[in-house]
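Example 3.2
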Amino acid sequence: MQQQIGESKMVKAATLAVDVGYGNTKSAFAIGSEIRTAMFPSLSPQAATTSLTPESGPFQARQVINVVVDGARYEVGPGVSISGAYTTGRALAEDYVTTPNYAALLAGALFYSGATEVERLVLGLPVHNTQKYAGYLRDRFVGRHDFGWGAIEVKSVLPLPQPLGTLLTYMQQSGKQYDPHNSYLVIDVGYFTTDWIVAKGYTMDDSRSGGVPGGAARVYQQIAGLISSQFGQPFDTIERVDEALRTTGSLLFYRNELDLRNQYLPEAMAVTQQSIKELQSRVGRTDDIRAIILTGGGAALYAPTIRAAFPLNDIHMMDSPCFANVRGFYTIGAARNAAKAAA
């Protein structure tokens, strides 16, 4: 059923962790003693002015909400359309966090968390943009907001490099097996960027950490280009490619059922080389790396290239890689709140 503004029970949240990624918007928040996660596509098209879905009968309305940012109305949520029939509102740009689309997606995460007051909002940023945009995020989102369903108060914003959350999650899952005396390389393959950090214990090695444009979307764009070239018809709806690869592996293109995994993906994988070569150059020799940790929505796509690039290192794929960073962000935010309360 379509979720209407005002249906959600609004509560105060001590910590809310949100990663507004280029591909998906993920969040982690507490409901009682349970830590829950949520995710929806990072698509924020202009909202439709009317709904044609009948209020009764077998048809179901899409699970979306309308969000108001700077006077414009956007549509966000799990049921947002991935069709190319109209603009999807996906902003694949370096200044993504400054766009109304980013604000609309963050507002959607706030709505689905049920929070009306947030003590500490933890936000993820690409490694290479963290210093550039951390101050902007604090200035933009600390304070009172009204995105269309009433006031929301955000008391503090903590921006963090995206792979750092995964490292904390990995530490928690590893327990005593985690080695604080040697370094770990965390590679976060997102939708538009590939980010990585090298860290020993809780200390990041800034000289070996970084990020570059180039994530899962690059593979999807290559597949779309191959399809367009083969059939002589334009095709650029990479959201459909993404969905097909994550589900059946098959994509309908007019009357043709295309086997993306076997017919197109192997050729498209060549585009993963550039980002991983840049990563290798920045990280340098990896004889001191205890393990390489793979995370992010594009981790499975890039895993073969990463394994070939680092054949002598142990490589671990995170369970539920899409949520690994926000789970860690939540842990960091909750720890900061606890330390503040104890001071």
